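Title: Comparing notes on inverse folding

I've been comparing how different people in this forum approach sequence design from structure. To keep things fair, I'm posting one structure and asking everyone to reply with a full sequence. Here's the target:
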């Protein structure tokens, strides 16, 4: 999954991953992180996710990173956000309404770009990456997030022989392997969701489980 893959997906509006509704695990599990009001929340590979609006409206300061400039423009336009824009090294930074979007490569982020974050929300970021990139992603998250940072991570699990990713299946054992050295982790909820996912049934899946994890950077 190189950059062109994602930039072309955005260019062609092939963004089936984008959800109109806020992810149900946010209102359900975010409160268990017990963050102080106004805490800074990092959203990796954020797309134009409406989850960022939910986090902002819940009183948090949001900072997302996304490869596609088109996604950032769509996020501002569709949500009628007036955002200022400036260049910061490899990133085009949009800022306004309690949300900052850094447009560029997640792997170019340095801790200073997201200084002060207390939490992260990963929906469709880890699972967007092929197996070869996931260890690098988890290591980079660990390098970016200071000790004490909590992450609400959402993973999907299915028979990878039935469908090609993305999204990819990331089994519980892999989550444990990826984050064991950097985080304590706790599965919060696991649900079978194939009955609510006609799109994935159409791609050949007969079972699909979604899991919410709480990670605690040690
Ligand atoms: C599956 S989408 C999920 C978007 C969002 N999390 C959501 O829930 O709608 C993955 C996103 O990651 C972005 N992306 C992929 N690789 C990236 C990278 N290296 N740096 C920043 N963004 C990246 C893609 O452009 C795409 O918008």
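Reply #1:
Here's my take.
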């Amino acid at each position: 999954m190189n950059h062109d893959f994602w930039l072309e997906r955005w260019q062609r509006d092939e963004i089936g991953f984008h959800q109109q509704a806020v992810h149900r695990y946010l209102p359900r599990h975010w409160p268990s992180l017990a963050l102080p009001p106004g805490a800074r929340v990092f959203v990796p590979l954020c797309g134009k996710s409406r989850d960022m609006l939910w986090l902002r409206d819940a009183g948090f300061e949001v900072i997302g990173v996304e490869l596609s400039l088109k996604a950032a423009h769509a996020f501002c336009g569709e949500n009628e956000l007036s955002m200022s824009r400036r260049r910061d090294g490899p990133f085009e930074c949009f800022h306004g309404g309690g949300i900052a979007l850094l447009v560029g490569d997640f792997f170019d982020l340095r801790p200073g770009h997201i200084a002060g974050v207390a939490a992260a929300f990963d929906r469709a970021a880890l699972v967007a990456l092929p197996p070869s990139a996931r260890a690098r992603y988890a290591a980079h998250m660990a390098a970016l997030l200071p000790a004490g940072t909590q992450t609400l991570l959402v993973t999907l699990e299915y028979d990878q022989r039935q469908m090609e990713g993305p999204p990819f299946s990331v089994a519980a054992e892999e989550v444990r392997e990826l984050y064991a050295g950097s985080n304590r982790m706790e599965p919060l909820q696991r649900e079978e969701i194939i009955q609510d996912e006609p799109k994935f049934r159409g791609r050949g899946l007969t079972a699909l489980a979604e899991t919410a994890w709480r990670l605690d950077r040690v």
